[in-house]
Write a structure and sequence with these properties.
With 452 residues, the protein is an alpha/beta fold. It folds into 3 domains: 159 residues, FAD/NAD(P)-binding domain (3-Layer(bba) Sandwich); 112 residues, FAD/NAD(P)-binding domain (3-Layer(bba) Sandwich); 111 residues, Enolase-like, domain 1, CATH 3.30.390. Helices cover 31% and strands 25% of the residues. The chain has 13 helices and 22 strands. The strands form 5 sheets. Strands 1, 2, 3, 4, 5, 6, 16 and 17 form an 8-stranded mixed β-sheet that branches. The radius of gyration is 23 Å and the shape is globular.
Length: 452
């Protein structure tokens, strides 16, 4: 079967769904291609269900911090009712159908299946071929990266998807990877009284963030009973039908009921046949210009571009791609103030460059680090007030190029810092702002005064 369309969107995750729906609403003939659920990873297996699980775990932790509720007999929780079964298959399919209906109600068409490029402006889905007059948008996201550890592929390991769908709490869990997904889920399972061990090959968890952030996350995990092993990797994995055995580089042997692989994500460009459009199928991601163009008549948005596996980045890029396809004016992509949050307790929000990244770029850097507990709000908050604000200033220009806000509301405090980095607000101007009392973000004002 052959048909034509103005635009074909390959992948209907958050960014792809936005592109397809907005272009259809603008009157273009759009075909969206999706092999799984419309909406993608975020609402079904990642951002949304994980934050629901985190919320449940945080409630338990907060209750345990309260002296009148701290007894184990009082603070109990049923995983199946609170932490587990957050994802319901019937609900997922209802949401999928609703999302598909939104696209078709705007005049778009949906093709179910795995699409591949078949040359410039051409997509195939099985024996179905669509010719795109304006072009194709790649928005197929990424898949969990499974490290080539001997024995691992032959075991019933979990990825984030299986962890989200778990209806029973395992007695024990090994997590391979100490990035955002690994530490978030490790803390959740531990707070429901699962014995958790995190294995991270770098010297710190959250190794891409500031060292202070990694140290804080590790301390928070250990406070919840998590065993955190850094600077070591899995060398061999086995499963005897009941439990997993993991042998590490240092010859330690770990044993647990379940194994979660959280070693990052990657794009499979070869599966998309990108070489037919002039791209490198062995590349780790699709390079794009400031208008999200990857080639003539080809755009890419979301995780596949390598700019961070964040829904907010996908949506940001989707808006730019839509403007370019419709010929509308607007700024090009700007990633210097890219924000991200790790939703552990405490939350760790960051924007822009780390201190190390700034120095590697040759900037003359001034920094400050202030503990959240030094603020009045931190003192009022009491137990659970661990956190800090770290600022990274380009001393020659007098503007912030990076910041980290960690604490009970680290992700929310980040907003003001995000504006400061993005808009390049002079540090002298930030120092003379009025910071609301008593709030966590008041620590930012003190940190500005402490820049050295």
């Amino acid at each position: 079967m052959r048909e034509q369309a103005a635009v074909v969107v390959l992948g209907l995750g958050p960014g792809g769904e936005y592109v397809a729906g907005t272009l259809a609403e603008a009157g273009l003939d759009v075909v969206g291609v999706e092999a799984e659920l419309v909406g993608g990873e975020c609402p079904y297996w990642a951002c949304v269900p994980s934050k629901m699980m985190i919320r449940a775990g945080n409630l338990l932790a907060e209750a345990r911090r309260t002296p009148s509720l701290a007894g184990e007999a009082t603070v109990t929780a049923d995983w199946a009712k609170v932490g587990g079964r957050i994802r319901d298959e019937a609900t997922d399919h209802w949401n999928d159908r609703a999302a598909a209906h939104r696209l078709t109600s705007k005049g778009g068409r949906l093709v179910r299946g795995r699409g591949r490029l078949a040359g410039p402006r051409r997509v195939t889905v099985g024996d179905h071929t669509v010719e795109a007059r304006r072009g194709v948008v790649l928005a197929t996201g990424t898949r969990p990266r499974i490290p080539p550890v001997p024995g691992l592929a032959d075991t019933p390991y979990w990825t984030n998807r299986e962890a989200m769908a778990a209806e029973e709490l395992p007695a024990s869990l090994i997590v391979l990877g100490g990035g955002a997904v690994g530490v978030e889920l490790a803390q959740v399972f531990a707070r429901f009284r699962c014995a958790v061990t995190v294995v991270e090959g770098q010297e710190r968890v959250l190794s891409r963030e500031e060292p202070e952030a990694g140290d804080l996350a590790a301390a928070a995990l250990r406070a919840d009973g998590v065993r955190v092993l850094t600077g070591t990797r899995a060398r061999q994995v086995g499963h005897d039908g009941t439990a997993f055995t993991v042998r590490l580089d240092d010859d330690q042997v770990l044993r647990a009921e379940r194994l979660l692989v959280a070693a990052g994500r990657g794009a499979d460009l070869a599966a998309l046949a990108v070489e037919t459009a002039g791209l490198d199928p062995t590349a780790p991601h699709v390079p794009t210009d400031g208008r999200m163009r990857a080639a003539d008549g080809l755009w890419a948005v979301g995780d596949i571009t390598g700019r961070g596996a964040y829904t907010h980045v996908s949506m940001y890029q989707a808006e730019i791609a839509v403007r370019d396809i419709l010929g509308q004016p607007g700024p090009e992509a700007d990633y210097r103030a890219l924000p991200r949050v790790t939703f552990t307790d405490p939350e760790i929000g960051a924007v822009g460059l780390t201190e190390r990244q700034a120095r590697e770029r040759g900037l003359r850097v001034r920094t400050s680090v202030l503990p959240l507990a030094s603020s009045t709000r931190g003192w009022i908050h009491g137990p659970g007030n661990e956190g800090f604000v770290k600022l990274v200033e380009d001393a020659d220009r007098g503007v912030l190029v990076g910041a980290t806000s960690a604490g009970p509301a680290g992700g929310e405090v980040l907003y003001g810092l995000n504006v400061a980095v993005h808009a390049e607000v002079p540090v002298d101007r930030l120092r003379h702002m009025i910071y609301t009392y008593p709030t966590f973000h008041r620590t930012v004002g003190a940190a500005l005064g402490a820049l050295r």
